Amino acid sequence: MVNKKTGLVRKIGKNIGSTLIQSLGVTDIADKSLELLNKYVDQHSGDIRVPDLKDVGLDDAEAILAQLGFKYARVLVQPKAALAEQATMMVLETQPKANKKVAPGSFVKLYFMDEVVQTKSRELVQQAVLKKQQRKAQQAARVHNTVQATKQNVGNMAQKVPLPKLKRKAKQTKQ
Question: Which residues form the PASTA domain (predicted)?
Answer without folding.
Answer: 43-114
